[in-house]
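[step 3/7] inverse_fold.run input=structure_tokens len=261
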């Protein structure tokens, strides 16, 4: 084992702000993850942590780097929001634009459209892999890296625990896309049906890997929010924070008795 504590952060769009609440609770206890593997929103939040930004500032990042503005619309590209136009806004938060400049190890997953495989980025330029990891299909245009087209990492791997296996003494996981029953009226549109189908597939694929972490946070209340619930980021962060505070003793127990192999 090379690192005492590793953190796995799922995707989930706006619901991923629950990860910020978890980090806030950990910081209050003097607990700092040493390496993070993240997908989509989890990759962005993991990168902010690794770059030294405190949890209190992370909500500002999502408010400032807001892709849902008229000037971000795509022209003659497959998607409504042009991912390439988001790069400039991210440079203030990641001025060095390199994994090597981060204070902690970071693993970012994205989905290669051409090969249909999951890709893990851990070195080289940082911003484009982060955009690729969070480029939700249909909404955002694919992100091109070295001539390859990438979209949201959660499509193939929404709980990327694999890079951390055998690397950390203790693994904590945060899954921000809990699956809950829906009423028939909740599936009244094509978009709702498509999103539900995608979430079902991602949840079952992710659940098969939950046993790899020593502790898992997945507040069921998050199912009340949509992936683009941008006006309630504060509420979502607070849900993650309160859920983590309620179970902080379990985290400390894991840290006191790390795995041996």
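[step 3/7] decode complete -> sequence:
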């Amino acid at each position: 084992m090379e690192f005492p504590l590793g953190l796995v952060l799922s995707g989930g769009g706006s619901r991923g702000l629950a990860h910020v609440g978890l980090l806030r609770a950990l910081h209050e206890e003097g607990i700092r993850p040493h390496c993070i593997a993240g997908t989509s929103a989890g990759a962005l939040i993991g990168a902010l942590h690794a770059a030294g930004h405190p949890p209190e500032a992370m909500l500002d990042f999502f408010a400032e780097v807001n892709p849902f503005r008229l000037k971000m619309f795509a022209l003659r590209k497959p998607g409504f929001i042009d991912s390439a136009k988001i790069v400039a806004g991210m440079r203030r938060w990641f001025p060095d634009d390199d994994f090597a400049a981060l204070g902690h190890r970071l693993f970012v997953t994205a989905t290669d459209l051409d090969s249909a495989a999951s890709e893990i980025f851990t070195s080289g330029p940082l911003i484009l892999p982060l955009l690729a990891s969070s480029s939700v299909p249909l909404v955002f245009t694919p992100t091109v890296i070295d001539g390859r087209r990438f979209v949201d990492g959660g499509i193939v791997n929404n709980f990327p625990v694999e890079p951390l296996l055998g690397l950390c003494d203790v693994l904590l996981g945060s899954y921000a896309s809990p699956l809950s029953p829906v009423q028939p009226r909740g599936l009244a549109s094509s978009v709702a049906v498509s999103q539900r189908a995608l979430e079902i597939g991602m949840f079952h694929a992710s659940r098969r890997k939950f046993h790899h972490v020593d502790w898992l946070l997945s507040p069921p209340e998050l199912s009340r929010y949509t992936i683009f619930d941008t006006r309630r980021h504060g509420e979502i962060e607070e849900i993650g924070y309160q859920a983590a505070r309620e179970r902080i003793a379990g985290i400390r127990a894991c840290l006191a008795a790390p795995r041996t192999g």
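[step 4/7] annotate
Residues 190-207 form the longest helix (18 residues).
Residues 180 and 224 are 9 Å apart (CA to CA).
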